[in-house]
Amino acid sequence: MTADQADEVMAGYLLKGGKMLAKSCKVCGYPLFEYKGETQCVICPLAAQIEPLPEPEPPAPTPKPGRSPAPAAPEMQGEAAAEIERTIIHLCERIRGEQRPDECLTLMRAVERGARALARLGQR
Question: What is the mean pLDDT of residues 15-42?
Fold first, then answer.
């Protein structure tokens, strides 16, 4: 789920009368909400529905001798890198405003993971 989608979901709960709390979800880091008498994360259940784990891809065929393997689709790598970069930027913006050291550390670890993923994609 993108940050914009998460913002829309949270705005929808506010419009429905939900109350954003000063506590964050320990899984996704977004604020918890009090809605219909329950404290809940409104992002995690949707993220699980929207972004199922991808099916493992079958192994690439072994190239025939004398031929080089086909390169990975650069447009897919570019899209993945762009999404990771947007996520890193969003996390950094959240770090700037975060007052709790433990939450800052969690967000900084997520930024580090994103940077490692970019490096694996060959992006810097």
Answer: 89
